[in-house]
């Protein structure tokens, strides 16, 4: 019986952005710019009596909180492991992503309540103010989204920030159009109607993020990894006749772990086999933390919680 564990951090640059890296400045810039914009947009929404502006300001405020949580979790994930936290604090990124998704939908609920009230009691809207502030939002949100564009494919936290900012930019475009329509037509119902559209767009665009963060929180295999494909790949390794207790789960929004028992009845040179296996798992599936145990034969049936797999 042979056992090996890999927790390597080398060659991380081959798969996605660094966990902290260049995004600390992006988070800082995004938070500062959006805080200023939220203050201006909320004041303008109250002055112009625009529910669309107020709903956009409320959503931008939730984005500020989301950016702060994601940034804090990213910094926390850099802390070294300890005796009690043997994997370190990487799991904070998953918890932050899940909390951010929940806060987003909570904010949408409050905004919906306010929008319904404005629809029941329409009031005059200052079109030029609405268009001016929303136009500024296009620039700020577009710039913030650009800051996160390079890392949005490798980390659900960064992708969440990117999608929030990109969505906000598109929403601001809608607010500009709505402000112009209200200004030129005088149809006051258009402002809350556009707010409903904003809510629908944000809710729909964020659903995938919410679903993925729930999956990560439940320690499901990351969406980009097909467990069946990993199982087939492992069974195809030289000398492997079966496997059992294959588990794949996220350590953070970036790091994936794997444990498995491989059966190699006639296995020789096990150390070299394990080194090659760990290298290939990282290259093929971006699994950088793996624990592999080699066995000469299967243990007694029922000794493990998963069904055994054998090469036919």
Automatic annotation (TrEMBL):
It is found in: Membrane. Its main location: membrane. Residues 223-296 form the Cation efflux protein cytoplasmic domain. It is a multi-pass membrane protein. GO terms for molecular function: zinc ion transmembrane transporter activity. The chain crosses the membrane at residues 26-48, 89-113, 125-148, 169-187, 193-210. Residues 31-215 form the Cation efflux protein transmembrane domain. Keywords: Ion transport, Membrane, Transmembrane, Transmembrane helix, Transport, Zinc, Zinc transport. GO terms for cellular component: plasma membrane. Signal peptide: none annotated. It holds the Pfam family Cation_efflux. Belongs to the cation diffusion facilitator (CDF) transporter (TC 2.A.4) family. SLC30A subfamily. This is Cation transporter. The lineage of its organism: Bacteria, Pseudomonadati, Bacteroidota, Cytophagia, Cytophagales.
């Amino acid at each position: 019986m042979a056992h090996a564990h890999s927790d390597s951090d080398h060659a991380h640059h081959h798969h996605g952005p660094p966990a902290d890296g260049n995004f600390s400045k992006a988070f800082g810039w995004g938070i500062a710019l959006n805080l200023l914009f939220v203050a201006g947009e909320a004041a303008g929404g109250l002055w112009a009596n625009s529910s669309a502006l107020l709903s956009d300001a409320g959503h931008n405020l939730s984005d500020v909180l989301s950016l702060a949580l994601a940034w804090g979790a990213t910094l926390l994930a850099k802390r070294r492991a300890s005796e009690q936290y043997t994997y370190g604090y990487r799991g904070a990124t998953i918890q932050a992503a899940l909390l951010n998704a929940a806060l987003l939908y909570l904010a949408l609920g409050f905004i919906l309540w306010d929008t319904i009230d404005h629809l029941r009691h329409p009031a005059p809207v200052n079109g030029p103010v609405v268009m001016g502030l929303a136009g500024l939002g296009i620039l700020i949100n577009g710039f913030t989204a650009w800051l996160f564009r390079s890392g949005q494919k490798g980390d659900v936290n960064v992708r969440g920030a990117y999608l929030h900012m990109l969505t906000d930019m598109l929403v601001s475009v809608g607010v500009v159009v709505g402000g112009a329509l209200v200004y030129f037509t005088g149809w006051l119902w258009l402002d809350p109607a556009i707010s409903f559209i904003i809510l629908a767009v944000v809710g729909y665009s964020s659903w995938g993020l919410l679903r993925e963060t729930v999956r990560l929180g439940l320690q499901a295999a990351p969406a980009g990894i097909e467990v069946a494909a990993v199982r087939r790949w492992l069974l195809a390794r030289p000398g492997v006749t079966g496997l059992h207790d294959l588990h794949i789960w996220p350590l953070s929004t970036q790091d994936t772990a794997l444990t498995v028992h491989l059966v190699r009845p006639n296995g020789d040179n096990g150390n070299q086999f394990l080194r090659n296996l760990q290298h290939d798992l990282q290259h093929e599936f971006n699994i950088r933390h793996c624990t592999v145990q080699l066995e000469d034969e299967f243990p007694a049936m029922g000794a493990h919680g998963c069904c055994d797999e054998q090469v036919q």
